Amino acid sequence: MEIPQLMSEQYLKAKEIIENSEDIKIYSHIDCDGICSGAILSTILDRQNKDHDIEFVNLDVLDDIDLDHELTIFSDLGSGQRIDTKAREGQKIIILDHHPPLRDPDYKDDKDYTYLEINPIHHGIDGSYYVCGGGLCYFLAKEFGYDDLSWIGVLSAIGDMQNTKTGRFEGLNKIIQQDAIDGGYLQLTENDINIYGRNTRPLFVALSYFSDVKLPITNNTTETMAILEELGIDEKHNRKTLNELSMDEKVKLFQKLLEMISKVVPGRYVKYIPQLIIGDSYTFLKEDEDSFLRDGSEFSTAMNACGRNHEEKVAMEVLKGDRIEALDELEAISKTHRYNLATSITKIAESDEANIIELENLQYFDGTGIKPEIVGTVAGMILGYCNWKKPVIGFAQTDEEGLKISLRCSRLLSYDGIHFGHIIRKISSEVGGSGGGHAMACGAYIPIDKKDEFIELFNQELEGKLTN
Ligand SMILES: [Mn+2]
Question: What pLDDT is recorded for position 350?
Answer without folding.
Answer: 80
